[in-house]
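Q: What structure does this chain adopt?
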Amino acid sequence: MAKVLVPIADGTEEMEAVIIVDILRRAQVEVRTASVMPGRKEITASRGVRLVADTLLNECTGQPWDMIVLPGGMPGATHLHDSATLLKLLRDQIAAQRWTAAICAAPAVVLGRHKLIPHHATATCYPGFQQELSGQVAQLSEAKVVVDGKLITSQGPGTAMAFALRLVELLAGAEKAREVAEGMVFAG
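A:
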């Protein structure tokens, strides 16, 4: 079974975080949410929704993750960017050629600002951050979900279901993704 880490923080876009976790778990993928906020699992998301992480991020080091998925939202993406522990996890993930995924502001704010996106890559992000991301990638895409090598990016809350289903497809296969989509009556 694939193991996925979803870091969250104060200001994380709740729709993205919850949809990603929910859809991956519907596909029987092992998902662990981890707060990057020092010493606390409960975070207040971008629209005031309180979420409780499974664990703290520092408890997720030293183990391989098949995929690390970064939800967006502001200032959530900034908190993810500022986490030295997350930066080390992401660098190790990329060095091991395992999946890294980001949606909304996270492709630009977390991956782009840390120069973790290969310069030859094609990627997308939230429209308000596309100017910033364009300087980090070979091609900025207008697609809802972009897969380039081991990098998956998406645009925002409205693309979260398609993004999460693509993650399922990459981790568990197209048939599992179809099964999950049909079970949710998703017609995307």
